[in-house]
Write a structure and sequence with these properties.
With 519 residues, this protein is an all-alpha fold. It has a domain at 183-507. Helix content is 60%, strand content 2%. A two-stranded antiparallel ribbon has the order 1-2. The longest helix has 37 residues, at 48-84. The protein is globular. 39% of the residues are buried. Residues 90-125, 243-257 and 503-519 have low confidence and may be disordered. The chain crosses the membrane at residues 16-34, 40-58, 155-172, 192-211, 266-288, 294-310, 339-365, 372-393, 413-436, 472-491. This is Transmembrane protein. Keywords: Membrane, Transmembrane, Transmembrane helix.
Length: 519
Amino acid sequence: MSEFLLHYKRPDPATWVYLSSFLTIGLFFVFHRFWSIRNLDILLLIMLAPGLLMVYGGRRDAFHASELVAAVEGLEAGREEAAMLPPGETPLREVDDLVIASESQEMSVELPGTESPMVAPRGTMLENAERVRALSDQLELFGEHEAGNRLQLRGFIWLLGIEMLILLRLLLDSAMVRRPLLAPNLTTGGLFFIGGSLLVFLMANVVTSTARQQRELGPEMSPAGYPLIQALPALPIRADAYERLDAPITSELLASSEPPSISSSVLARVLVILAHIAVLVGIVLIGYRHFGNLRAGAGCALLYLLLPYTAQMTGRVDHVLPAAMLVWAVLFYRRPLVAGIFLGLAAGLVYYPLFLLPLWIGFYWQRGRKRFIGGVAITIGSLMLCLTLGGWSDLGDRVQQMFGLWLPRSENLLGVWGLGWFPIWRLPVLVAFLLLSGFYAVWPAQKNLGTLISCSAALMVASQFWHGYGGGMYIAWFLPLLLLTIFRPNLEDRVALKVIGGASVSSNRRISDSQIEAA
């Protein structure tokens, strides 16, 4: 009986896309107002799923092809070793360490030290070698590796195209003054029940996942970000997940790969689970405290859990942890010091939220800017101080990686810029992004909580276009802020002068005098 009741199989990504899309439409689509911005937002969120599936499928095909090439190289090396040994001695590399399965045009190779339900018998070296050679010829004939890369490229282009539409929608959000209340098609209790159930299943996938050590890219390929976060292992929630496989695999790389330590695996799981819970709690509290609508906060959190991206990238620490920091910075926007601490954490962990500083300083310019800047400085200074725990010898390299202190790279890139697009075009995209970041320091002139949320989401979306290591896939950086923008009411009265305290008596008197004169 336990086999029937407790047996749980993780759904295929495509299956989850269909189920979650239908449920999202049923719960959040406004059927009585078909032509509404809410329905457009729901469709844009759903349209991200095809790009994710194409990238997933492309990486899977490229991974299988790379594994096959590595297996052929290993077999050839084993045959050379066997030929050099005297007659009667056993070769050091037995071909039965490699198991090759071919099922319905899908190839899978298990390397030494891996668990497999199939075991090749001894004495079949020649037979397996011929099978591998035949599959290798088929691989060269159909070009599976290049086909996988082309599918990845189409997926990244699809993602960036949908994110361009999302960016335009966020840029226009400040002009949308009329924001009618469009509640989810379910009660608050039902939203919490479904959301809690999804959270349990997603976190169970994280706990039962097998940690994979991230690839040592080297200083010339390391992405910008805090070294500790970059060194944590990946937690793929499926056994056939390939979200960290961004470059061809060689036999040397597969042979030298080691499982991550238990401490790093536990730390990655704890950080991922706490970060997801922090995102959900922060979203609900923002809906309750700042939007005055608990149902909207619960619906926003449920939509975050329902989206295929969350299910596919649940175990990515570098995705969800900065998102949690940004959500809590918005939650504590009335306290500039605390908001600065959380934004400083996000900027110190993955570097890209640093470009939010002009926008947030502009929001606090009339009141609270010193406390906000102090919070950011204290946090970043503390993170830099923690870098000294690893020694002083390579402290400069770690600080350089933390802040991305190098010229824009044009080689060894991943994602769309490493799969076919000319990297030189990253430079004008980067310049446009910097102009947008600086422009938000002065526009809109009167910033409120609504513009703070939508403009922060817009900048995080815009960073995807010049991100050189998988830009377009880091959806968590803007997804919670985008959902808050979709569900938010009119927040024009939530400006720094009205909601932030701590001004002196003389400054308050000057403000009241100016208001009397204006009246």
